[in-house]
Structure prediction request, 1241 residues.
Amino acid sequence: MRGSRRFVRLRLGALIVGLAVILVAPVLWPPQADAATVANAAGRYDTLVLRNMGGKRAALVQLVAENGAFMQRELWRSKKGAFDTRKATFAAGDVNADGIADGIVLYELGGGRSRLLIYRSDGFTAKQVVAWTSKRGAFKRAKAKLAVTDLDRDGRDDLLVLYDRGRAGVALYSFISTGVKFKQKLAFSQRSGLIWSKAQLAAGDVTGDGRGDGLILYAATAKKARLLVFSAKGSKLTKKVFWSGAYAAGHARLAAGDVDSDGDCDAVCLMKQPNGKVRLDVFASSGKAFKKPVAWYKPGGTPVPAVSRFCVGDVTGDGRADVLTAAAAGTRTRVTTWVSSGSGFVPKLWFTGAWRYATVSLGVAPSVGITVSDKAEPLTDASRRYLRRVGADGTLTFAGKTGQVARLETGDVLLAPAGPTFPSGLCRKVLSVGTQDGEVVVKTAQAELCDVIDQGQIALHMNITAEDLADDGIRARGVRIVRDRPSPPGVRSNARRKDDPHGITFTLTAPIGDWAEIEGEITLDPDAYVNWQIGWGGLQSASYRQVLTTSTDISVSVKKTVSGTKEITLYKRTLTPITIMVGAVPVVILPEFEVKVGIDGEVVAGVTAGMDLSTETWAQISWDGNWHLGCGSSYEATPKRPQVFGQVTVTGFASAGLDFEVYGVAGPTVALKPYVELAADTQADPWWTLSAGVRGEIGFEVEVLDHEIFSKTFPLDVFGPWIIAQAGSDGSDDGSSEYQAPSVSGKILDATSGARVKSAWVEVSRSGAAPRRTSSAADGTYVFSGLSPGSYTVTAGKNGYADNQRTVVVVEGTQTTGQDIALTREQYQGITGHVFAEAGHYPIFEASVELYDADDTSIWSRPLQSYVTYADGSYEFTGLEPGNYRIKASAGYCYPESVTVSLSGGQLRENVDLYLVAFRAQGVFGRVVDSLTGDPIEGACVMADDGGETGGYVEDEVFTAADGSFVLDGYERHGMAVGTHGLSVSKGGYEELRRTVTVTRGRITDVGTIHLKELGGYSMQSERGACIRWSEGVPTSTGRGGYEFWFRPFSLSGTEWGNEIAQVTYDYPDWRGGGPRRFPAMSIAADEVLVGGSYATLFSFTLAQNRAGGDPGAPGTYHTIRGTTPIVSGKWYHIAAQYGPSGMQLYVNGHLEASNAYPGAPEPFGGASGGWFSLGENYLEGQGRPHTAGGDYRGLVVREWPHYDADFTPYDDDPAGGDALVYDLLAGMTNGENLGFVPTP
Prediction:
């Protein structure tokens, strides 16, 4: 690939939808991930949650801390029935020292036997590992309380368990982690004086020695308590009383964390007061004792719910541990972060989920890297405004040059999401740039994704529902799309996904040309899965999988003899474009959906054939250097006896195709065709056979991904034909499988109009023989074959008609023809009508209709009659007395509707129709954006309630999509009734907004754009190579200063030269007559050094002492100090380096790790013309100097005065004139020229 690369970090979150409950064992006091031993992303912790998904199924969810909010990501999910959360105690910690939080579960096996499970996470998925199993009867989970900390200072989190040994007292067991297993040791025991039920356990480095300690809050009496610390001494723990005094520990919950950033863990208690309110108390640790409790938060503004689960960890990345509470609010769980200021807590809502309860534990998570070419860039707003024309060949004509257009070169790639200008999105490679008549003409060609993305993944799962289909895609008369109704009869449970019982149903009463008529229903449920992996060198792998669930219950009646294939397209339409952001690249995918029905073969007039077939079929095509193909199917068929007279070969089918175009260029495609074959031959035995099967075609055109890979299309013969019925198998024709000539035939007619009546039931019977039944065809004809001579009664009927019959005589060797039966429409006293859908006015099948006495308004009113509608939506109530009646209709996924009817004597009230509004057809929609930037906000929680301005019962809750859009309807909770509702919009890091909205019948009302205001504060993430230049030179006039920033390495060279992270360098126009040069005066680096017999990478801080020997142009000596913390890739580190008269100091993660007495500053040699400060770029690389450290950088602050004392406490006031701030990224200000750093909200 041409051009250089820039690294983009993409946070991925998974939204898990469902009715889920999160449970934790009741004895669990929330564990805390030790801040001294668990590294964290951007200096922050993330949250792990164990969720009870119902049905003895659990999921491990990670809440990723990002800019004042949590994004949820599912790491692991058990199989159904395999995990009972009632038997689990949950904790979290980094058990394998990879800087990523792992889940820890103590699981009860029964019989006094328990097991420790580790859920080893890579930040995106977790794998369950058995880490320890007790002997039978030796360890009961209900007698264990857990806490997590690093007891042996090896970087791996261990487990402390406070165990109830009954009469033998209590024991503290240490479970030392090996990375994959736990080794159990008895660390402390006490026979009396320490009652298990009165003790609460937490853990952390209370003494500040780098080793984790156990911490117990013990309720000595109802009003007195002790805080006990258990410190590691060898393999044992020693007990010390760190505090004793008046405290109602029985009403408190305990956790531990360094909330004041002094290097040792403090005790934090969630205290329930006598008045029912709750406060947060802190017992500050001095390393040797706890100070008396101080209330860091008292009830006032935001209450702390008494049912909260809570824990402690630094989720803001400021070096101070914060408190997290997870509280139930109806069916939702709100996770609030109580941000520590060092002396108090400020509550902020960071997450709201549709979970009933939660327990949280803290850990860490990395981000995902993808690589994008710097040749690719999105079309800017200015360029869009200047765009005048888009040619059919992709030529872009601009009215003039914007900054972007002016710098376009051949090979650049322009990108844009789908929109009015580019319905298929834009991914075009520039071929040439020229001018014509004052306009800029840019000729382009379709770019390949491999031109844009060096490394990344495009994954998509799409399930098409009726709501995705617009009626303008219908291509045949008599076809309707059924929305918001249960699955019809004929959909078999073994041929449908149990977790998604819905589908797209088409009702058909449609002619196929002038030769046949089709009637019935087709239900389709297509799922598509796309996964493309792009790596260095091009496409690595590509796969497309479609799962199609079908239920086809149709009958085709042939009006005249036909030959060959006859088909009609029921539906065809390009659906709404899907845009997947891969870094800054908008990958636009356009799905196209098509449904066809038809017949194929030789068939004569009067033949009626039907299929009642349910299938679940999958087909997959993939490429990984070679093409692979797979398919499979399951089916269930109900035979429908055909009406056939002679030799016939006919296949009836219903096919569905789902194709994907990428930027409007063909991509993966598949068409699956379930079919039923009817073969009849009067000379054969059996003389007719009905078979079923699935055929299809699948292909992949990959030119838009990578032109070097050839496209492929494969025919599919998934299964069949399999025989589902034969002549004689259904007991008809006296059980004979041989051909029998027709005995009786005729037509069913309307007695008033004379019109032929189709789909009437017709039955022939005589005394002593079982009756036979058939249905009239599209032309009203019916036929019975193989009747023995004698007299028969032929009866016919249909809904809305009175039954009628006639007597016919069958004579051996002849056909009794012309046996027509006329049906008369019924007229009687009562109420009839239909139930229709408000949208489209299609009939609703199997709607429930209830009849009430309208004059009975009591709460005890019960329906007088009930009715379930037919396929045409009709209902009828007969035999009614005169009076007032209320009719109520309801159907699945629709709002109920009522109407009052007055009935007089002898009256038939017809066409009393009710129109139901689908839950999904009524509600509100809108868009949520950032009030400052106008950018869409993804994952904002939008809730509707019935309480107007003040709140009330939650009726519905959704989260915004990637474009900030949301739709609130009644589909999930059936709550968006007509009227006024309250609307609350919230997102972590933003102020919650509340307003009222009005819902109108049968409409999804646009409530417009909702602007959320950020809570405040700035952060940034620089790109490699950012720097700041001061024209007057890097300020050193005070002889003192400091540099402070966050750094996360992802590339360390591992050479003795080290890895340059930050520098101060000077330019020399003519270095000793040898031309221009640049030399360093200050360096912060990562050096690989030999420590204790092995190599480790440590931070170093170096200042140059120049003007050696009085020569201002001669180099001098370099003063270097090194830290003690080994550097690990993927972890965030906070670095502070300062210099001045008191010497050099290097702080890592808030701890002073190295210092000396050198009182100098970053001095230039003689003749320097200007200075640079660079972060993430070594300006001397390539000159035999050290390599540049690859990594991410945040929060740069440059000062002209030292800022911290030895224990990392900021100076209140500097005697030399204050803390002069040269550059503060958080405030977005600089006194110099910014050449790369970009503050972002």
